[in-house]
Amino acid sequence: MKLIGPFRQVITLANFPLRGKLSDEQIEIIEDGGILISQNKIRQIGNFEALKSENQNIEIEEIEGMQIALPAFTDSHTHICFGGNRANDFAMRNAGKTYLEIAESGGGIWSSVQHTRNASEEELLKTLVKRIDFLIALGITTIEIKSGYGLDVENELKMLRIIKRAQQQTKATLVPTCLSAHLKPRDFEGSNEEYLEYILAEILPKVKEENLAKRVDIFIEKSAFQPEESKAFLLKTKNLGFEITVHADQFTPGSSRVAVEVGAKSADHLEATIDEDIEFLAESDTVATALPGASLGLGEKFTPARKLLDAGAILAIASDWNPGSAPMGNLITQASILATFEKLTTAEVLAGITFRSAFALGLEDRGKLKSGLKADFVTFKTNNFQNILYNQGSLKAENVYIDGEKVL
Ligand code: NIG
Ligand code: FE
């Protein structure tokens, strides 16, 4: 057993409910706290001195200076396995160019597909691990990563295999998702429905065989896949044994409904969700995931996070880090900014980037500092946890622990 501390404050989130709004009075703060760890799991949280005297013959890891500790974060939506760069898309968008003009001049998702297809496995692996390390340095120890820039058997499998190789190089938990239904690739001869059939017949069986992903995602949008064809596809993936997540209501409403109807683990984006569908989501167990990084990258409105929480939804916040719409990658900055625009309490933001986003990935063993849970936590050199969001991402994590071991 090992006792780590003393911390000026330990923020446990232990008593937070899975869904709905939260007030900051609900935040449990353990002053002069300690974290007792046994076999990679949290054994007990309490006053450091009390834990020390109650437990003889244990290893003590002394914390230097004033630090606070809280559960490590989960980023439940990223596209960080990619080749190339889309800075020109960003510049063109800001210069007033339309989606079509950008696509016609060689930008858009298709440009990332070409760069990703052309990149070597080693190159993709190296940049992926670098991005994972960037996220760990923010205090994120669980990271979902999508394919979706391969868009044919060979290249989708290549992406998912690289994510699997990256898992060998990091202690963070990587959760791969097959997003072959990101877009019908330009070189596919056939209709949308035929492409979705191709995914079901050619890609997913191999994904299963090699155990490359347990989750399937789809981009439902006017420019990508339509609600009806998507619903039929998702029900079939479910029959194959996959969990489902959906890129929903980013620009046009209607698809979060599909996500709920097929029992998706999460519906992500939701910038355009109408009030009626907010209610529908809130009555379901489908996590509503806000992606403020995409709103900031595109200059579009934010997900109605306040309304979702008030209606009782399970609200997660994730980065959507990708080369096109969300190039920033700093979830802490993004969540802090979402809080100012949507009027979210600190409690709601912390819940959204910890156990609620972990729940979206089906991981209920983390995201709170509570006996029996995975000992993943992050520390900051500050005297008050409020400084984390207040500094909007510029207060850097001091240390990051995974399974009770310091990795940063
Ligand atoms: O989540 N919306 C669709 N997919 C990504 C963007 C991907 C890209 O532009 O490369 C998103 O925003
Ligand atoms: Fe996305």
Automatic annotation (TrEMBL):
Highest taxon in the source lineage: Bacteria
GO biological process, one term: L-histidine catabolic process to glutamate and formamide
Keywords of this entry: Histidine metabolism, Hydrolase, Iron, Metal-binding, Zinc
Pathway(s) this gene product operates in, as recorded in its UniProt entry: Amino-acid degradation
Keyword NADP in record: no
The protein's Enzyme Commission number: 3.5.2.7
GO MF assignments: imidazolonepropionase activity; metal ion binding
InterPro entries reported for this sequence: Amidohydro-rel (IPR006680), HutI (IPR005920), Metal-dep_hydrolase_composite (IPR011059), Metal_Hydrolase (IPR032466)
Domain called Amidohydrolase-related: residue spans: 68-406
Enzyme class, first EC level, given as a word: hydrolase
UniProt GO cellular component terms: cytoplasm
PANTHER family per the UniProt record, alphabetical: IMIDAZOLONEPROPIONASE (PTHR42752), IMIDAZOLONEPROPIONASE-RELATED (PTHR42752:SF1)
Record's protein name: Imidazolonepropionase
Organism: Chryseobacterium shandongense
